[in-house]
Amino acid sequence: MNVYHLLMLLIGDWSSRPQSRPKDMEDIIDYVNNKANTTWTAGINTRFVDATSTKSQLGALLNPYGRTLSIKTHYPLLFLGKEALPKEFDARKAWPNCPSIGEIRDQGACGACWV
Asked: Peptidase C1A papain C-terminal domain spans which residues (predicted)?
């Protein structure tokens, strides 16, 4: 094996490694698993280890112009109503004639359902 082939193998191995997770994601997972009173456990879905695989499944062009987008971490509260929120709400009861509410579709390998 010559040096060129060895170099290509090393580059391929390096580029296929998952990107590191953002610190805020680890904080969220820690909060959900240790402080929030939930019935489920948060974690990393290994099916989408890095953003590249997720973007490719969504059909996105992988940053064709080298631009980066700012990430908005919160959204301002646009409307504060005077009406209190109900203790529970069931859309199936509120709109019983809507056939799609309550329907769970098989999204298979869609990818968009994970974003």
From this structure: 85-114
State the Cα–Cα distance between residues 25 and 17, nearest whole angstrom.
18
> In this predicted structure, what is the pLDDT of residue 61?
61
For 78, counting Cβ atoms within 10 Å of its Cβ (0-12 exposed, 13-18 middle, 19+ buried), the class is exposed
Element (H, E) at 38: none
- What are the pLDDT digits (tens) for 92-112? 999 999 988 888 777 666 666
Q: In whole angstroms, how far apart are CA 46 and each of 49, 80, 86, 94?
A: 5, 39, 37, 37
Sign of CA dihedral 89, 92, 96, 101: positive
- Tell me which residue of 3, 7, 110, 5 sits closest to 58, measured CA to CA: 110
How far apart (Å, rounded) are the C-alpha atoms in residues 96 and 101? 8
101 with 95: CB under 8 angstroms? yes
